[in-house]
C-alpha cells in the first residue's frame, strides 16, 4: 500500500504527482473486506428507514474511505494497521512551534489531493434523503467536507473541517485554500517527496525535509494557525455537543454509518502515564479527563438515544462499541447499501 507523492515547483506553479496506484486504486485501498450485501438485511434497513419520520444519521470515517480517504482503525487497512505513526496531539501542536512546522509541511504536500476528494454514493444518498424530508439531521465525525460537497445542509461537523483554518490567538477563520497560496509564496523553492497518505489530509515526510519549510502566521494578528478541527486530546465545543444532544432527543430513530464509536484506548494520549510516579488519585483524574474528551467520538449520543428508547441501526464493516444497543447491525460498504434504500 505504498503511495508515493512528489511535490515540486515549475514556473511558479505547484504540482503534486501521484503514483498510478494512488491515482487509480486508492478508493479500494482503505476499505476493509466485507461480505456481499444480504438482501434480507437490505429489507430490514428499508423497513427501519421507512418507519422513521425524523431520522438522525451519524457518520464516521467508514463513509469517506470509499472516497479514497484512509481512516485510523479499519482492520488491515487503517493507519494503525499500516504504520506505527499516530495522529498529532492537540497539546503538542499548541505548545511547540516545531510540531506546527512539521504538521503544516505535511499538510501542504497532502492538501491538493485531500481537497480534491469527491463524495461517493453514500454521501449522495444521505443528501437525497435530506432533500426528500427523510433525514432530520446529519452529524459527522469526519473533517473532509464531503457531506457539504454532496449538498447536505442539516449538518453538524462534530470535529470541525479541514477546509477551514483558525488562528489560535485571535480566532480569525480563513479558507484553507487561501493558506495554501501563502505557503506557496513563502516556499517557492521548497521540495519534498512523501510516501503514504494519512487520514487528515497530510502525508509522511522526514525531519530533514521539514526543517526548511516556512509557516506563515495569522495575517490579522500574527498568531499561530491551526486547522479548524478537533485534534486528539482536545475537547469538542460544549455548545456543539449540547446542540447534537438536542437533535438526538428530537429524532425518532438513529442510524450510525461507518463508525466504530470507539474510545481511542492505547492511543498516545496515554503516554503521560507511562513510567509516571503520579499518585493514584492523579492518574485516575487524568484518565477520567481523557475518557470525557474521547467519548464524544459519538458513543454518548448513542446512550442518549438509548435513554429516549429510540431504535438504533448500525451500518459499519466490523464490530462497533454499540452493537449490543442496536436493533439492526449491517456489515456492508456504506456506498453499496445506502443507495438501495428508498427514503420515501
UniProtKB/TrEMBL annotation:
Keywords of this entry: Metal-binding, Mitochondrion, NAD, Transferase, Transit peptide, Zinc
Cellular component, GO annotation: mitochondrial matrix
Start and end residues of each Deacetylase sirtuin-type domain: 35-344
Pfam families (alphabetical): SIR2
Positions of Zn(2+) binding: 167, 170, 218, 221
Names of required cofactors: Zn(2+)
Chief subcellular location: mitochondrion
PROSITE patterns referenced in this protein's UniProt entry, alphabetically: SIRTUIN
InterPro entries named among the record's database cross-references: DHS-like_NAD/FAD-binding_dom, NAD-dep_sirtuin_deacylases, Sirtuin, Sirtuin_cat_small_dom_sf, Sirtuin_class_II, Ssirtuin_cat_dom
Active site positions, chain numbering: 159
Keyword 4Fe-4S: no
Cofactor note (record): Binds 1 zinc ion per subunit.
A molecular function (GO) term: zinc ion binding
Catalytic activity reported: N(6)-acetyl-L-lysyl-[protein] + NAD(+) + H2O = 2''-O-acetyl-ADP-D-ribose + nicotinamide + L-lysyl-[protein]; N(6)-[(R)-lipoyl]-L-lysyl-[protein] + NAD(+) + H2O = 2''-O-lipoyl-ADP-D-ribose + nicotinamide + L-lysyl-[protein]; L-cysteinyl-[protein] + NAD(+) = S-(ADP-D-ribosyl)-L-cysteinyl-[protein] + nicotinamide + H(+); N(6)-biotinyl-L-lysyl-[protein] + NAD(+) + H2O = 2''-O-biotinyl-ADP-D-ribose + nicotinamide + L-lysyl-[protein]
HAMAP family xref list: Sirtuin_ClassII (MF_01967)
The family this protein is said to belong to: Belongs to the sirtuin family. Class II subfamily.
Biological role stated in the UniProt entry: Acts as NAD-dependent protein lipoamidase, biotinylase, deacetylase and ADP-ribosyl transferase. Catalyzes more efficiently removal of lipoyl- and biotinyl- than acetyl-lysine modifications. Inhibits the pyruvate dehydrogenase complex (PDH) activity via the enzymatic hydrolysis of the lipoamide cofactor from the E2 component, DLAT, in a phosphorylation-independent manner. Catalyzes the transfer of ADP-ribosyl groups onto target proteins, including mitochondrial GLUD1, inhibiting GLUD1 enzyme activity.
Record note on quaternary structure: Interacts with GLUD1, IDE and SLC25A5. Interacts with DLAT and PDHX.
Official protein name in the record: NAD-dependent protein lipoamidase sirtuin-4, mitochondrial
Species the sequence originates in: Myotis brandtii (Brandt's bat)
Amino acid at each position: 500500500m505504498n503511495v508515493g507523492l512528489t511535490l515540486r515547483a515549475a514556473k511558479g506553479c505547484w504540482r503534486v504527482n501521484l503514483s498510478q496506484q494512488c491515482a487509480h486504486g486508492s478508493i479500494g485501498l482503505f476499505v476493509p473486506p466485507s461480505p456481499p450485501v444480504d438482501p434480507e438485511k437490505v429489507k430490514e434497513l428499508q423497513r427501519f428507514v421507512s418507519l422513521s419520520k425524523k431520522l438522525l444519521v451519524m457518520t464516521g470515517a467508514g463513509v469517506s474511505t470509499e472516497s479514497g480517504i484512509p481512516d485510523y482503525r479499519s482492520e488491515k487497512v487503517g493507519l494503525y494497521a499500516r504504520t506505527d505513526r499516530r495522529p498529532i496531539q492537540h497539546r503538542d501542536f499548541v505548545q511547540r512551534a516545531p510540531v506546527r512546522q512539521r504538521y503544516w509541511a505535511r499538510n501542504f504536500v497532502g492538501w491538493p489531493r485531500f481537497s480534491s476528494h469527491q463524495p461517493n454514493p453514500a454521501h449522495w444518498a444521505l443528501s437525497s434523503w435530506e432533500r426528500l424530508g427523510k433525514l432530520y439531521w446529519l452529524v459527522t465525525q469526519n473533517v473532509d467536507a464531503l457531506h457539504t460537497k454532496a449538498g447536505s445542509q442539516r449538518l453538524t461537523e462534530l470535529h470541525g473541517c479541514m477546509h477551514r483554518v483558525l488562528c489560535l490567538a485571535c480566532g480569525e477563520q480563513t479558507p484553507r485554500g487561501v493558506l495554501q497560496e501563502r505557503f506557496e509564496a513563502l516556499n517557492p523553492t521548497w521540495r519534498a517527496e512523501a510516501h503514504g497518505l494519512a487520514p487528515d489530509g497530510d502525508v509522511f515526510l522526514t525531519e530533514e525535509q521539514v526543517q526548511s519549510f516556512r509557516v506563515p502566521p495569522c495575517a490579522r494578528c500574527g498568531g499561530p494557525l491551526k486547522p479548524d478541527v478537533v485534534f486528539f486530546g482536545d475537547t469538542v465545543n460544549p455548545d456543539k455537543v449540547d446542540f447534537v444532544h438536542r437533535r438526538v432527543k428530537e429524532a425518532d430513530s438513529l442510524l450510525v454509518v461507518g463508525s466504530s464509536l470507539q474510545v481511542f484506548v492505547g492511543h498516545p494520549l496515554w503516554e503521560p502515564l507511562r513510567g509516571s510516579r503520579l499518585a493514584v488519585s492523579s492518574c485516575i483524574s487524568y484518565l477520567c479527563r481523557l475518557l470525557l474528551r474521547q467519548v464524544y467520538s459519538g458513543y454518548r449520543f448513542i446512550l442518549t438515544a438509548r435513554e429516549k428508547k429510540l431504535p438504533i441501526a448500525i451500518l459499519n464493516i466490523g464490530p462497533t462499541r454499540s452493537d449490543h444497543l442496536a436493533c439492526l447491525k449491517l456489515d456492508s460498504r456504506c456506498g453499496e447499501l445506502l443507495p438501495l434504500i428508498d427514503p420515501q
